[in-house]
Design goal:
By secondary structure, the protein is mostly helical. It has ten helices and no strands.
Length: 198
């Protein structure tokens, strides 16, 4: 009895290790393919082939492209959260530069992950990416920073206004349809918010 139980533990451990390895392989392969092609052009079958795994293995980890996109976004989002928390710990509060820094970081995140965010937004109902829990953290952070800069302002409304400005569809419109450079978008957003807080 004991030897069989020990073997089961070993097998389960190996199975978990294989699952972790396969997930990491799939994410790395997806990141590479999405950098080479449009996200919409990469099929799940092509991803499985490029990773050298069966479709069953792929679908055990990610049922669809939405789940895959969310997993890829999660890593970048965690990095943004870590850097923001470090920045806020070093800031004594009430520093408009920290608010402007955070806006710039979110804008860069949106620009960097434009296609993935559009995929996730398409699965999130009428609010799109604004309804995503991770992005709601952006709104909460913005609200806290706005209130620190100017405690007399309507922090909720200003935070909501900034939050919507940073939405992927708004950024896409400004960058692709209107032709503004990333620097122009960033500078004008920051200046607008700074004026609102005076």
């Amino acid at each position: 009895m004991m030897p069989d139980e020990s073997l089961n533990v070993i097998d389960n451990s190996r199975s978990r290790a294989d699952a972790i390895k396969n997930r990491a392989l799939l994410l790395a392969t997806a990141k590479r393919l999405f950098a080479q092609q449009k996200v919409s052009d990469v099929t799940m079958s092509a991803l499985a082939d490029a990773a050298g795994v069966g479709k069953g293995t792929l679908y055990r980890h990610f049922e669809n492209k939405f789940e895959l996109s969310m997993a890829l976004l999660d890593e970048d989002q965690r990095d943004l959260q870590d850097r923001t928390l470090r920045r806020m710990r070093d800031d004594n509060g009430g520093n408009v530069e920290t608010l402007k820094w955070f806006m710039a970081e979110v804008l860069l995140f949106t620009e960097r992950n434009n296609e993935l965010l559009c995929v996730s937004a398409g699965e999130s109902g009428p609010l799109g990416s604004l309804a995503h829990p991770a992005h709601w953290w952006w709104r909460v952070t913005l609200r806290g920073l706005v209130a620190q800069v100017n405690s007399a302002c309507n922090a909720d409304y200003i935070a909501d206004a900034i939050f919507v400005l940073l939405d992927v569809h708004n950024v896409y419109y400004l960058r692709q349809e209107r032709g503004y450079s990333l620097e122009q978008v960033m500078t004008n957003m920051q200046n607008m918010v700074e004026n609102m807080l005076r």
